[in-house]
Amino acid sequence: MRTVAILLLLLPMSLAANEKNIDPQTGLVKNPGWLHVRSHCGGCHSHALVTSQRADRQTWLDMIRWMQATQNLWQFAPEVESEMLDYLAQTYAPMPNRRRAPIPTSLMPSRDPQEP
Ligand code: HEC
């Protein structure tokens, strides 16, 4: 009972700790470079389109080039673009493969040859 009460007291603290690094306005993680992304990536669509995406650096660059070629996205100074790509590739990196490895054959039940 007492443990539960202590855990309930600690819960808001741990939530606050997590939220500290997230900008409440845009939902962007405040890692280095995030201000560029705040300024340049929320004008046409929500920043949520950015934060819900996961990609490596090249794929982020491809998306920017695609928006520049087809969606009127403006050009960036090379150092601004590079900082944005660093930010995006580090903060919104591809998810690790979450599928578990196959079960080794040695751990699988042996097949009864009499069964169909
Ligand atoms: C000039 C307008 C404009 C700006 C500024 C802009 N985008 Fe986009 N972006 C678009 C449009 C239009 C789409 C397509 C939206 C849709 O499909 O609803 C899009 C789509 C996306 C997508 C989804 C791509 C996909 O394959 O699903 C991502 C991610 C994205 N933008 C990231 C960014 C980032 C990062 C920036 C800042 C560097 C940015 N956008 C700035 C216009 C823009």
Question: Could you characterize what this model shows?
Answer:
- Helices cover 50% and strands 0% of the residues.
- With 116 residues, the protein is an all-alpha fold.
- The chain has a domain at 20-95: Orthogonal Bundle (Cytochrome Bc1 Complex, Chain D, domain 2), CATH 1.10.760.
- The chain starts with a helix and ends in a 25-residue tail after the last helix.
- Residues 40-41, 43-45, 49-50, 53, 63-64, 67, 71-73, 84, 88 line the site of heme C.
Summarize the structure.
The chain has 116 residues and is an all-alpha fold. It contains 5 helices and no strands. It is 50% helix and 0% strand.
Per-chain topology:
Elements: H1 2-19, H2 34-40, H3 47-51, H4 57-70, H5 78-91
Bound molecules: heme C.
